[in-house]
Queue: 2 jobs
Job 1
Amino acid sequence: MSLFDQVLALGDDALVAAQRMSEWCARAPQLEEDVALANIALDLLGQARELLSYAGTLEGAGRDEDALAYRRDANEFRNAQLVELPNGDFATSIAKMFCFAAYQNLLYQALVDAPDATLAQIAAKAVKETKYHVDHAALWTLRLGDGTAESHRRMQAGLDEVWPFTHELFESVALAPGVTASSLRAPWLAVVEPVLREATFRRPVDGWAPTGGRQGVHTEAFSYLVMELQVVHRAFPDGRW
Amino acid sequence: MTESPDWPLWEVFVRARRGVAHTHAGSLHAPDAAMALHNARDLYTRRSEGVSIWVVPTANIAASSPDEKDSLFDPAADKAYRHPTFFQLPEGVEHL
């Protein structure tokens, strides 16, 4: 993959995760959590903007962040399938956020020391943001695990649902200069497994590992997400107000 | 948005910068102290308002009653000698 493809994939991960997370806005189980999830979505959107802007510069074809976000079809997106999965219930969303934020945090940590100066700069800010996302999701994981029988059941179901899609994050491709995705899995497990254990969840077994997002193969729900993401831009191309 | 009657109320105090006191910022609901801190960070410092947060269970705050206003506060009203306004300032003293 060229550097453009790599940065595009990182940006698409953040953009699609932000879009999914923002679906919780005004729907979270509780007002304070609503604001927390909206903040996290905004952090992710900020990362997406910087990464996509940089990708546009690398490509050198005159596409800016808006062109990349709003003028590509679903099969041109390079995000991992994990971030496009429908939110499901709150527990499933927490399971997804925990898995993804822990991955992103490790990735950005690695990028801080990566040879690409622009990526290092973007990552330096994102490390702090994703650290908070991991903490927030871990707090909820512990509470849902220790909460009621129903909260435990739902979160376990959420973990079982999203776990197969985490494998794609660690496929053996160069994610960015100096960072191999597969090298992040052991540290990722070292973050995730202790929290699951403390929260009394069963760590899902590794088996089915759907893949293809990095090549533009996406799940059924993704077209709807892209449609909603782009609807205003498609109705009013380059509109300003 | 559903009611959360089982989640207690917390009062949030935020210190805007080093050297100034924590001031009351507002209140929120949270199941425990750790979540209250997280929620306070998101609700009251998202525009860079603070460098430190305290959260206190509202139930643990003892407040004076408005009914006691006269007996608590009025007696101080006519005791002007408690204010340091009767001293001659020496020449050249600016910050007193």
Note: DSSP finds eight helices and two strands in chain A.
Job 2
Amino acid sequence: MPSLRVRRGAVALLALAVVYVIAAQVGRGRLPDRIWMGAHYVENVQLLPTWHSLAEEGAFLLESGILLDSVLVSSGRVFIGLLLGSLAGIVLGLLTGWGARVESLADPWVTLFRFTPALALLPLYVVWFGYGEASKVLLIATNVAVITLLGAHHGVHAVPRVYLDAAASLGASRWLRFRKIVLPASFPSIFNSVRIAAGLAWVTIVVAELIDARMPSLGYLLALSGAYPRVPTMLIGIATVGALVLVFDLLALLLHARATRWMGRAG
Amino acid sequence: MTANASPPLLEALDVSYTYSGLTPTQALEDLSLEVKENEFLAVLGPVGCGKTTLLRIFAGFLRPTKGSVRCAGSSIDGPGWQRGYVLQEQAIFPWMTVRENLEFGLLAKGVAPAARRAVSDQFLGLIGLSEFEAAFPKELSTGMSKMVEVARVLATDPALLLLDEPFGALDAQTRARMQDALAGLWERRRKTVLFVTHDVEEALYLADRIVVLSPRPGKVKAHFAVDLPRPRSVETRFSSQFLAVKRKVWEATGAGP
């Protein structure tokens, strides 16, 4: 059924675009073009940019290379953060889930982090790791690690007893049971959490990039377009982030499907 | 210990087991039984009479609250491949192919890949699943999955086989076919088997001897020798001898007239 889902998604996107274009045309000349920015008025603001000015702005962003560079830089940060965070989170989650005693120690920590928005750590990370790459990547990694830790932890706990018993009575050592039973059996939960984390990583990076004023980055592109303000740039930036979230989600979904192809229904 | 010529391979002596909890439940009470080498013993009893508890004690997952269990003369303290255990629930590993499932016990024993493959080839042939070697269990029927589980246990060449209602979840026809497959497998590679079931006919068809348990707390209520010729077939199921023993066993279970 994926083709049907893809078609449905495409139709929904197209409908949204059509509604927007109509709204922009209707609003042209009718919406206010002068807005109060807190300290002063800004003239010639397009609240709903027309299709034409969006295309113009898009062409400029593409030709100048700003958009592509920003996409590459931001995607790179998300990817590395996702990779590091997933590795750390999955390893820790497996450990806390499998080692009965570690679990009771780790649980309050997990709960503490789970409800602490990772963005609250931003000022601290900037102080600790500076304004460069490290603080942003580590912020994403932290956010991702908390989620994948929970996914792996719960995955291990949800492994049906029967498989562990069957393996034990076939003579499997604790290590073999971990590798061949616990690990694959918790894959669905683990890769599900990676998928959720991939989306959240984008939330984190955009906000993190708003803080440090450095191009190229999608977050700063959005921050700049807000400062002018240039609504066409904002809309293109938002759509780009949305598209990237979608791409990362698809990649995570493929990974999930690959790791759980033995299941009756994947995905 | 009696000075018998062939000592029992598996024995339970005055075994009691109580599940602790808010309302402690006694599952077994002073149960004694023995299984001789190469014997196929069926333990027959109503649902909830402690059959599974007894099997889990033999498999090494539970320790009797009272009494002792021994296998080949030494007491049982934990699970091990020497006592091959087929659980009541579906326990085929869904993330492994049929072949990987069959080879798992050998992998645990540290057998080399080539030797593992030779054994799994042999069992794939025995259970007629050669063309499913690379398939995941989701492609198998419940009955075939169970046969893979039985073969997976046999592949490690255990001293005895503990089977917990392996065909409980199957319809009557599939069940009969699986019983034939199991009987065939057993006749070719004779093993000591302890088979737990609540189905009188199944017990009669497969076993050399039947032990009937009482409702909870389970204790031995009656013994029957099943002297039906082997190999057994559909004819066996309808022979007068079969029906005569069936009547006796049926009455002993308390379900009779």
Note: The two ends of chain A are 11 Å apart (CA to CA).
